[in-house]
Write a structure and sequence with these properties.
With about 90 residues, the protein is an alpha+beta fold. The chain is built from two helices and five strands. The protein has helices at about 50-65, 75-85; strands at about 5-10, 15-20, 20-30, 35-40, 70. A five-stranded mixed beta sheet has the order 1-2-3-4-5. The chain starts with a strand and ends in a 9-residue tail after the last helix.
Length: about 90
Amino acid sequence: MKPTITHNEEDQAFYATVHGYESELAYSLPSNTVIDFTHTFVDENLRGQGVGEALAVAGLQYAQAQQLRIKTSCAFMQAYVERHPEYESLRA
């Protein structure tokens, strides 16, 4: 089941809720041109089901759409971008 991702700009986070369990990708905006993905949390009941990847893709697509450069303070996002070189050009 592919999770539905919601973006809450006020909270600076993307959320995925599946079967009542919530996961999130948090970010900060250190400048008008940079988004820093700071933390990813996937509920233990959802791990290994592609929820983290769905959050990563949503965040990176948002960065592309907003023409933002990315920083990856979050280890999960760092590893995700390293495994997906198509996002490497977005790095700040």
